Amino acid sequence: MTLLRRVTEDEAVRSVAPAVDAQTLAGAAEIVRRVRTGGASAVREYAERFGERREADPLVLDRDAMRAALEFLDAEDRRALTGASERIETFARAQREAIGEVTVAIPGGEAGHTIEPAVSAGCYAPGGRYPLPSSVLMTAITARVAGCERVVVASPGAHPVSLAAAAIAGADAFLAVGGAHAIAALAYGFDGFERCDVVVGPGNRWVTAAKQVVSGVVGIDMLAGPSELLVIADAAADPALIAADLLAQAEHDVDAVAMLVTESEAIAAEVKQELQTQLQNLETAEVARRALTNGFVCVVDDLDRCVALVDRIAPEHLEIMTRDAQAVAGRVRNAGGVFIGARSAEVLGDYGAGPNHTLPTGGTARFCAGLSVMHFLRLRTWLRIDEINRAGSMLGETVRIASMEGLAGHAASARARVVRADDGRG
Q1: CB 3.0 to 4.6 Å from 183: which of 125, 210, 252, 283, for a disulfide?
Q2: What is the pLDDT of residue 422?
Q3: Are 282 and 313 part of one and the same domain?
Q4: Which residue spans within 239-312 are E strands per DSSP?
Q5: Chain segment 68-127, per-residue pLDDT in tens
Q6: The dihedral of CA 355, 69, 125, 129: what is its sign?
Q7: Is residue 105 included in any domain, yes or no?
Q8: What CA–CA distance (Å, rounded) separates 203 from 310?
């Protein structure tokens, strides 16, 4: 089994797969259709089929169930989740405070925007092989800080640690199912469960495909496929640290992608050797070894070529392990999250250093950003004309442009204001 196959720069770019394949999209669309038309019975059918719920188990759990899980949580586990939640909230509040309302002068009045949060947020957290309470915190806390009145967490099986994380995040309800049927339930609702306005969070290919299907019905954050890590390294980097970080990425699941771009042949060889050594003592080696076959190592001429290749790939996570990592980071344009210097392990971002860990994959960092309070906010524009006699030039230009477009009613509407201004009724 080849670990991190050697590729050229063009091969590296072509290896980046889209988040959703056509077959999964078609299957997810059918699941969404069945939930949309069948409601709770369809959700329950899928939940029982996949072993998420038994016949007598409720599909939706309330705050009491979440609080009970939190009370039984190990004290050290609770302390860790609480510490992470505080850092996530602090970062999200700083983002929210950086976004302000706007008012600008226009002829005869003012225009601007207000900031309105979505009313209801659906926050998905994976829970397949392992529960991911970190994703519960990342999504639900960010929605709360944005100002959403109702925050729902969805995760398969209602694992106690996920329920506890939902309690810490202040969730209002917990939908105890996962997969495409959970996304459909969040988007359309069912008897006794109200639909959400925005659906966010990471998930497997079925979750991602379902998000694409419902994206015209609800707002979504992004289409995030298998998780990715790209490491830029020069000759001064530590091969053992690079290998450890690539393995941390690879153990997510067999579809994860670990990438190394370096100017050093020696580093490329030493990292491969370290991967073999560290895999021998890694509990998740079976998954990690398979995932490493998805990744690659690419040796280029210099750091300029490293940066250029990163911008073409636009990875989800980018670690920079070079002599002047800050300078290199300043030159990168396309990456979901950037981890600057050997001390800044990507796993710290996974578990609550502050910035959100829900990030764009599959090259979408070229045009998409990671989850933030902005995904739950709407910039609602407004304008107000107080003195119509001072808006003459704007009215005249409006009439002219409407005439150019052949929209006579638009032109008449603007002229009516001119007439009212002339007779003193404006």
Answers
A1: 210
A2: 58
A3: yes
A4: 257-262, 296-299
A5: 999 999 999 999 999 999 999 999 999 999 999 999 999 999 999 999 999 999 999 998
A6: positive
A7: yes
A8: 24
E-strand stretches of 243-300: 257-262, 296-299
Below-70 pLDDT ranges, the chain: 1, 419-426
Q: Do 250 and 326 share a domain, yes or no? A: yes
Residue 364 lies in a domain: no
Q: Do 140 and 61 share a domain, yes or no?
A: yes
Burial 303-319 (b: 16+ CB within 10 A, else e): beebbbbbbebbbbbbb
Does one domain contain both 31 and 97? yes
Could you give the angle at the alpha carbon of 346 between the alpha carbons of 345 and 350, nearest 5°? Answer: 125
Q: Which tokens hold the place of 113? A: 């925007």
> Which of 199, 223, 215 lies closest to 122, judged by CA?
199
The strands making up 257-262's β-sheet, listed across from edge to edge, are 5-6, 296-299, 257-262, 228-233, 317-321, 337-340
Bridge pairing between strands 296-299 and 257-262: parallel
Residue 225, pLDDT score: 84
**Lookup result for tokens 């009145």:** 149
Residues 6+ apart with CB under 8 A from 339: 317, 318, 319, 320, 345, 346, 348, 349
Q: Which residues are catalytic?
A: 316-317
User: In degrees rounded to 5, what are phi and psi of residue 132?
Assistant: -125, 75
56 and 87 belong to one structural domain: yes
What six digits make up the tokens of 9? 């720069």
Instruction: Identify the CATH number of the domain in which residue 321 sits.
Output: 3.40.50.1980
Q: Give the C-alpha separation, 167 to 67, whole Å.
A: 6
Query: How confident is the model at residue 68, as a pLDDT?
Result: 98
The four Cα atoms 154, 157, 160, 163 give a dihedral, to 10 degrees, of 10
On whether the pTM is more than 0.90, the answer is yes
Answer yes or no: do 125 and 32 share one domain: yes
Residues 80, 201 within the same domain: yes
Residue 17 pLDDT: 84
Give the distance, in angstroms, between the CA of residue 119 and the centroid of all CA atoms in the same chain.
Answer: 19
- In total, how many domains does the chain have? 3
Residue 334 lies in a domain: yes
Residues 216 and 229 in one domain: no
Domain-embedded: residue 368: no
Using alpha carbons, select from 6, 9, 20 the residue that is nearest to residue 362: 20
Which residue range is the domain that position 417 belongs to? 387-422
Q: Phi/psi of residue 77, each to 5°?
A: -65, -40
What confidence score (pLDDT) does residue 16 get? Answer: 86
Judging by DSSP bridges, how do beta strands 150-154 and 120-124 pair with one another? parallel
